[in-house]
Structures are given as C-alpha cells and as structure tokens.
Amino acid sequence: xxxxxxxxxxxAQIPGIGPILLQRMQxxxxxxxxxxTAPATALAEVEGFGRQTxxxxxxxxxxxxxxxxxxxxxxxxxxxxxPADPEYPHLLLETAxxxxxLYYRGQIDREENLGNRPLIGIVGTxxxxxxxxxxxxxxxxxxxxxxxxxxxGMAAGxxxxxxxxxxxxxxxxxxxxxTPLDKIYPEQNRPxxxxxCHQGVLLSEHPxxxxxxxxxxxxxxxIIAGISRAVxxxxxxxxxxxxxxxxxxxxxxxxxxxxxxxxxxxxxxGCLRLLKNGAEAILSEDELLASLGAIPQLDAPQxxxxxxxxxxxxSFLAPKLEPKKLVAEPEKSVTPLPDLEPELKQxxxxxxxxxxxxxxxxxETGLPSGNVSSALLHLELLxxxxxxxxxxxxxxx
Length: 397
Fold this sequence. Notes:
single chain; RuvA_2-like; 3-stranded antiparallel sheet; DprA; about 40% helix; 12 strands; Arc Repressor Mutant, subunit A; DNA-protecting protein DprA; Rossmann fold
C-alpha cells in the first residue's frame, strides 16, 4: 500500500476537487500526499484554486484522517485503483480528466493494461433498430474472437448488444457504469453483469452506496473513450450521448469509426454526421479488423445464435418521395427551453456566451467539479452549451 494511494482517495472526498485540479496539485507539489499538508498560501498558487476553493479544502482537510478513512473505506469498497496503482488503466492516465478513484469487480487481465490486448469501445443509442443491433452483436463477436476487449456502458440497446455479442464469442468485455457497482442499471441487465464478472470487468468511479444521478451517465463516457484505443459508434441520433463519447475519443487521440445508415433514419443521423466530419466508415468486418491491426480471417466466425434480419423489406427502404415545388418554407417556431433542474440551471447561468475555462465555472457555482462536469455534459446534450478545446465552455443561447 503506497502513501499516494491513501491520499488520492482522501482528496476525492473533498467537493470541488476534481481530476484536473488534482493533476495540477500533483505537478505543483510533486505528489498528492505532499499537497495534503500544503498551507493555504501554497494552494492558492495552483492554477484554478480560487479563494472559495482554498477555504473549502482547508475546512474538509481538517475533518479527514486519510489513513483512518482509507481503512474504513476498504470495508465496503475493497477493490479500487488510484493513479498511484500500477494496475490503473494507462491510457486513461493520458487524458485530461482521469478518475481519481476507479472501482472494479471481475477478472483482471494485465495484458489489457500493458496494451497487448487492445480495448475497443462500442457505443450507440438505447433504442436501436434491428440493423444496429445485428451489426453491433456481429462485430463484437468477431472482435472478441480476434482478441480485442470490448468496452461499453452497460446501457440498454447498443451497449447491451455489444457486451452480449462479445460474451457469445468467448471474448472479454468491460462495462463502465454510471452507477456504483452495487446498483445494476438497467435492472434487466443484472444477469449480464454477472456474466461480465466472470468474463471481464465492471468499472465505476462511484463507491458503493452513491446516489444515482442522471449526470453520472454522460460523465462515464470519458472513461469509455479514455481506456479504449478506438471507439465504434453503431447507431446514434443527433442528440445521442454517444456523440459525446466520440468527441472525447477524438480529443484523446483515439480512432473513431461509425456505422453508415440510411439518410432518412433518425438513428443514423449522428453516425452520418461523424462520417462527414472525418470518422472512418465501417464497411466490412475484414476492413475493420485490418484497420484495427488484426489479420482478417478468410471465413469470419458467425455468431451462432444471431440471425440476420431481412434488410431488403419495406421497413429498410427509403420512402418514395413525390416531387415538391420549390417554395419558401414558413419560419419555424422557436422551441422553448426545457425546465432545468436547479443544478443544471445554476451551471448554465455561470456559463457565458463567450468561452470560459472549466475551473472558473466550478469557482463561480461553488459546486463540486464532478457535478459541474456532469451538468455541462447534460447541457451539451440539450444543445445549450458547447465545449471548445482546452476544457473551455460557452453558452449556445
């Protein structure tokens, strides 16, 4: 047990201290353990530490005994990693916001962390078409057979199909939860979670007993993108959280692939937009395997329980379009803004139309950085906020 491991856990208990500030403190003081005993004047010199943040740190530090808290925490959460642990995912450490604490259950494979078994993220909508589910399970099955580990978010729809397809092929899969590991969501995936525990790993940045919040689900997308070498988006409408995963993967320097679909299908709009913006198209199993660095098999294995739907029927064809006269369309009415939860409203009000750094939003709201990050992802999904390079945000309305 290293001293750093104890203090990563201790710092994670202080509201407003997120992964970005923790990395800056580590760089400033040489270790998070040394930062724990730093005086207020020294903390104030760390970029992003405002007066309120320093006062909050001093207050919470005085009430936490790191070693004692660590021992108590182990009683309910015996399995977790911090950036001080050699088992912590190396690729995630390369990102701007690695989770300070990462809880796990299941079968650990050192080859994954060493990069000898590449991790491939597969994400998409919770309400896929038969086309989307078929290709998700088929590609997950084949990739698992070829030695890739499939990473997804355990949600209904594409995520579930990705985990199932990989397991059917005897491969390893990693499920990144938006809930703590003692709360399986959705409930119908409880048997699937049990399978993954024997054939992969469950991951979460939330300790047992954490209250489930809607903002935690988009927040976990950065972990899916961060631990993956490449991300495949199978089906995604324009407002899908999968597009955030793809954007994060692109920022992290990961390869992004998208499954082409019909232009008249709402579930394909996000994928088509990704392809327009430079994502690689998934055109065949062999081409995908070659692109990911595997040697394609002459006869790709077929998922034994998976029958290909008939994509030639009317439901998969574009409707016949009648010619229309070129007339001016009436102006569309402006959609009223949705009612926002108080915390979302607070973060939106703290985000001006001009770009502002993430840390200033945290300081302005006085909320924990994790809550602000979740709120910003939620607001981004609603089209109310956009993120710019350098962890800067601006309001879109």
